[in-house]
């Protein structure tokens, strides 16, 4: 009875609020919000002080609005970046960090436009989604190439996203009309990590040409708002979805991959909703990241963001105080596994590589379609690069990286071993640990195990259930295993006899990461691990023995890897096994014929995972005599 009364009262309140809205002219009480977003764009705009850029329309928007100088995507690649935006959750917390993937969210969670639609908004997305989470129905009024705020009901407020693909990675390496070639390759500034070759200059200058073309499109969208006499009613946000499509921007979880241009404009009518530090034609150095966008949109609509959202509003009724750090991550990139987490303060960028045995520049087939990637790799193989240009390709990579973004914007001088920066390093380590603990990062399980342990629930729920996932034990094991310290080797080998299969996985990774020394120190444990109850422990141990053990070890390893390379067992184990085989290089040669016979892309795999196996097979066989 009591419950019924409460429900009735709640209904009356909702009805009364709706009535109030109507009497005040209804929807006019809510601001229109327009997002202009573009693909693969670092802050290479004139308004960001880049003299080479030709971006008059966005420069003009920045002149009447405010520009953020420390805005970052949380992921350096499309799908996980967009998944962060739409959920208001860090994908390492929901199991959605991998490029690409598809996981379920717990039932009470919603994608943020659903809240806006409930509040009366007309929500459109034109048109890329690319979410790594299953989308419930009713998220958008229209999400398509035809989606347009103009189709709303008379007087209805809108939340509209337009996304420009013209600046995408794929558009900096194709043919471009001569009339659009407005940048001189001879004059482009190259980052210190790229070699100076005609290919690299051409790609960078076409990237700038594409930004000029994108700027025209943005200008047309802003004109459309003017012509509809909506400029005084519409809050505008402009941002790129992550760093440029050039290698070591896109897919790299350091500042060059995460830092984006970010401009906001609040017309005088909605000044009271603007960020507290808002000043037209000025900048804000507040740390803003994509996980903040969902709560910020709710805040602008007067809706209190739910507790489960993991970012904070940076304007509107529920504006939060400035965070001390923003966080970044990299998981699997297409066919290549990695696990990187990063912490950004205003001055320093800290990167923790939990798979130091994989180079930054793993062979990602799509990234290698860019001429810059290919010539950069070729010059490395020929020994023609300097130290700063070589780091991207070296293996193992450093476990920890620390950069002073003020002194070293290209992030080429690693200060992780600098005594002078010890305090800074400790501060960033602690920030990482606290954040990871708060969000219960499930990325410390292999992708296969993360999904396997989540059966009957969701990865988020699994991660938050201490019986299913002992996060602190996992994080401690991962840190110990991948600090690359020879004195830790016997402790790392002992991880292989722990009860938790996730911890054992880190034991195998830790020995693999230290190469010959690791395999020598943990040989017996690795041989036993070839028969571990967990298949991913078997695969990881097989890679260690296959690469750094005896010929006899390599033969035993190939048997294990050939078994799991068959995708019928499991598509994620198959990807892991193919990666291991590829890193074995010529030592995988005895298995060549058997590998040729495997077709690695099972037909029952969701399309979001399609094609990765085929690329792995191709690259693995390319190394074999
Ligand atoms: Ca993108």
What does this structure look like?
The structure is a single chain. By secondary structure, the protein is of the alpha/beta class. Among the domains are: 2-188 and 195-320, Alkaline Phosphatase, subunit A (3-Layer(aba) Sandwich); 340-423. Helices cover 39% and strands 11% of the residues. It has an 8-stranded mixed β-sheet, with helices on both faces. Strand 10 (340-344) and strand 11 (348-353) form a beta hairpin. It binds calcium ion. Calcium ion binds next to loops.
In brief:
The protein has 625 residues and is of the alpha/beta class. Among the domains are: 313 residues, Alkaline Phosphatase, subunit A (3-Layer(aba) Sandwich), CATH 3.40.720.10; 84 residues. It contains 23 helices and 12 strands.
